[in-house]
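Annex B. Sample input.
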Amino acid sequence: MPRLARQTTPSPVPRRLFLLSALCIWAMAGMVVAAPAPKADAAAARAYASVDPFIGTGGEGHTFPGAVVPFGMVQLSPDTQIKSRKEGYGWAAGYRYDDKTITGFSHTHFSGTGHSDLGDVLVMPIAGEVKLERGDVGKPGSGYMSRFSHDGEIAQPGYYAVTLQDYAIRAELTASARVGVHRYQFPKGKPAHVLVDLRTSMYDYPGKVQWSRMRLRADGTVTGFRETRGWAPGRQLYFAMRFSQPVSGHQFNDTEQDVPYKGFPPPGEKDPRQRAQIEGRQLVGAFDFDGAAGKSMVVKVAISPVSEDSAIANLDAEVPGFDFDGVRNAAKAQWMQALGAVDVDAPEAQRRSFYTALYHTLMGPSLFMDSDGRYRGPDNAVHKAEGFTHYSTFSLWDTYRALHPLLTLVQPEQRNNDFINSLLASHEHSPYGVLPVWAFHGQETWCMIGYHAVPVIADAYMKGIRGYDTNKALKAMVDSASYGPYDGIAQYMQLGYVPIDEEGEAASKTLEYAFDDWTIARMAESMGNKDVADKFGKRAANWRHAFDEKTGFMRARKRDGSFREPFDATASGYGSDYTEGNAWQYSWYVPQDVAGLAAAHGGEDKLVARLDAVFDAKVDPKIFEHMEDITGLIGWYAHGNEPSHHVAYLYAYAGQPWRTQERLGQIMATQYAARPDGLAGNDDLGQMSAWYVFTALGFYPVAPASNEYIIGRPFLPRASLNLPNGKRFTVVAEGLDAAHPYIGRAMLNGKPLERAFIRHEEIMAGGELHFTMQAQADKAWATGAAERPYSMSGSAGR
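Annex B, continued. Sample output.
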């Protein structure tokens, strides 16, 4: 979960930095991924109705309730007001459920991040006097913000509505891939206006907007752009806006340069605010609509990474008219199709949690390409995608674990190929010749650690997803794993570990690099590239350099080979041995070789004892007050952050799968709920939600690229995956209830399944995984050595 405190400014040596008519509308909306016609059946309708976009908008979920289509570039949502965006960690998605005022509706957001940017092209309808500043949240009427209530507020996939109480305006939002569409019902008797603020963003601070422009064209189209220096420095975004009512007047203001307009303009002179174009760093415009009072008006806004003219082209291509309901219906159709990837039979609260989680996994990576195929790359130059759709917003440290593996099951193969081609395009255009680390809007942030585009590619390759140049892919992976200036990779290649006296968070880096290296070896071996497979297979064992036999923890070594002293296993934070965690949370991160980890501890029973110590510890949450990321505690286990996500499944590797079943029960009961604060931590572009989807189904991808899913236990009575190859895989949990939480028997296609894992190819072949649940733990099921999941160091019978 990335944090502002982890951001650094890149340098030459970077640090880290939605029935046929509906389908026609869908195609018009720019969704280029080939997909079968959406089924307007009862199951898809129930799935759509079960989604509650408010889940995660409270607490630390950091999700937004606004309008977006699956993987859409426009993510149009309300932004709520706080005293200062400098306090903005809790407002990373722009909206918090507990707030009472709305500042406006902006067109770009992140779903569930712990750091933020975006909030581009904020639009606010106004009835009455126009005020140019947001105002003070404690003083209603002091600015253009408005109070609102959750009464009458509606959030559905692809649609949002709210009443702005201070203006008596009903506002509705919907979207296509590249266009946000607003509908405002203005009250009678007051002048109608629309304000456009280019100054505001998530995490405002002086100098963030480096330059911006707004212009009113002769045909009434408003266009503009801004360049910001935020999380991704030098990010450029362009927009085009049209109104269903004619503009009767306007004003453009630069609040940084313009003098107060009291007494302006002088007699006989034209008001300079009525200029046709303005440029500057702090721009806000207001547009008057004499014919809109008491009427409904539609505003549509397209965005583009390339130019204002491209934004206009996107507007014309996707939403040529002002049919708000048509766009809304098209968005609904896309969501019904996407959510129809899984059919779930379960109690309503459980369905609400499941389908909302699935919904949250289908927002990112997000489209980042104009209707003509052009996009902006990490070199800040404009490129054109040839044969693929370009995506950005890759939160890879979070999403390689479960989000991307889930998308191989619930999204068309072409979509997954597009993700990989986008990663490879970024490698091609990178000034440093590396794959993305944490990228959005084409730009690299260098946030978090590892080279985790690598396991995303390897996992897809091992699953037979290969609509890209595989040789180029392997080269890009090796290039990224060999880029010495990044986060201690030079030392890692030399020593086999990252030395803590030369690079921070060295234990975490050593462990994560070793896993990524293992995925390179897996792909290279499958491709017949023995040299690369051997090299990176050896590097995959580098986790052993971090293991301290004396303490039983993963620790950071210095260049001289000694462990850094003094050692405190509870210590966390920047400057420690670990990234967003401590020794109790990171010492189990060897997903490629859990058998080896058990052996290092002196055997499986000792590893199990250490895992129990993690979950059973009495931990005062105040110890993590300085770490916003470490939430959702069960003992030392922190479900609110990714390094813990695989830990409950490790019992299955150690021959005690019933313990995995118990721990998963604890986690599901305490870390997820069907309410606004129902996520224990930041959703992180769908990773927390992907964990829930997998675990509810009954299995989880501990080691992406292994092609194995570790069986936990099912939490749904019945669920069917409608796979991208047209087949159907059903999971049935007979007798499942609170009194019967343990697996008593497992059958795969009518035959006993005695192992603690299921293979990807078995799921893709279709069929049925049938569990019979019971009250007591079966301590004999899936315990034999040959029944354990994969480990690189092997186990008996494997």
